[in-house]
Specification:
The protein is an alpha/beta fold. About 15% of the residues lie in helices and about 35% in strands. The chain starts with 6 loop residues before the first strand and ends with a strand. InterPro entries: Glyas_Bleomycin-R_OHBP_Dase, Glyas_Fos-R_dOase_dom, MMCE/EMCE_epimerase, VOC_core.
Length: about 130
């Protein structure tokens, strides 16, 4: 059987505000928003590919403990977006007040990457693939 990633799921204090951030900075498109699990709201978004981004509110009674958007943590560390021009993307995002966690870095294979902090302490990698 072939498998593919269906979605990436993050928890948010305010899923609608987080969804608006992805709409503003990554041209995400809200597909729907509804209660999936009792007492929570999930916003599902399309972000230019087959993998959806789902953003859900925190269930009642769950921990308020937050992680930190940093490299090398255990569990789901980050997810990434392909970009065509990493320098201009970083400039655009930084001018919008977004924290760069790891500045533009050239990999040994020739691709370029950087990490930014998204809403809800989510670490996001921006990847400019090597052009063949």
């Amino acid at each position: 059987m072939q498998y593919h990633i269906n979605h990436v799921h993050v928890r948010a204090q305010d899923p609608h505000a987080s969804a608006a951030w992805y709409e503003k900075h990554f041209n995400a498109k809200k597909l729907w928003a509804r209660e999936i699990m009792p007492g929570t709201v999930t916003v599902s978004m399309e972000v230019g590919g087959p993998v959806r981004l789902n953003i859900s509110s925190k269930p009642a009674g769950s921990s308020d403990e937050r992680s930190v958007a940093e490299l090398n943590r255990l569990g789901l560390e980050h997810f990434g977006f392909d970009v065509e021009d990493l320098e201009s993307e970083l400039e655009r995002l930084e001018s919008g007040g977004i924290r760069v966690v790891l500045p533009l870095t050239q990999t040994p294979t020739g691709s370029r990457l950087a990490y930014i902090e998204g809403p809800d302490d989510v670490l996001i990698e921006l990847v400019q693939p090597l052009r063949q």
